[in-house]
Amino acid sequence: MYRFNLEPVLNHRRLVEETLQKDLAISKISLIDETERLITYEKNRDQLLEELQQIQKEGTTTSDILLYLPFIEQVSKDIERQKKRVLELEKQVEQNLKDLLEATKNKKALQKLKEKAFKTYNQKLIKNEQDFLNEVAVSQFNRRIRPQE
Q1: Contacts from 68-72 at CB under 8 Å and sequence distance 24+?
Q2: Closest by alpha carbon to 34, among 89, 80, 91, 75?
Q3: CB burial string 68-84: b at 16+ within 10 A, e below
Q4: CA dihedral for 95, 99, 100, 104, sign (positive or negative)
Q5: What predicted TM-score, i.e. pTM, was given to this entire model?
């Protein structure tokens, strides 16, 4: 029975790869969520700016216009903060992808080593079986020849 002596290492590499796949999926979901939040902030800012323009066209007082400015400023700060968050998550997704590719490469290298070792094992079994069959054939041949002598 064939037993790969590095099977525990291969199992560990599989586990690492699975963990990194999960991490990548989680970071991608977070990136999508944060990008959607950024879009929402930008829509809110655009809406506030449109309302401000509408108010200006209607000829309202300066105090009414001044009420909008802190809200617009706050939303603008939120947008900048959110852009930084999205950028961080993009970098995290990129790093997670690199880590996953490296882990996959390491696992595949070990899998190829296992396949090669298994092939060698099978070839050795076939050779041993052939040697045994040759020995049996020689033995039978010798039995047939010796009784006649």
Answers
A1: 72/45, 72/48
A2: 89
A3: eeeeeeebeebbeebee
A4: positive
A5: 0.75
The pair of structure tokens assigned to 57 is: 């066209």
- Separation between Cα atoms, residue 75 and residue 44, nearest integer Å: 7
25 has a pLDDT exceeding 80? yes
> With bands split at pLDDT 50, 70 and 90, how would you rate the model's confidence at 19?
very high
Say if CB 45 and CB 72 are below 8 A apart. Answer: yes
Residue 59 gets the label, from left (phi > 0), alpha (psi -120 to 50) or beta, of: left
Secondary structure (DSSP) of 93-127:
HHHHHHHHHHHHHHHHHHHHHHHHHHHHHHHHHHH
24-39 in b/e burial notation, b at 16+ Cβ within 10 A? Answer: beebeebbeebbeebe
| Crossing angle of helices 7-58 and 62-148, rounded to 10° | 160
Q: Any idea which residue has 């700060």 for tokens?
A: 77
pLDDT tens digits for 100-125?
999 999 999 999 999 999 999 999 99
The label of the residue with tokens 């076939």 reads 126
Distance (Å, whole) CA 73 – CA 61:
19
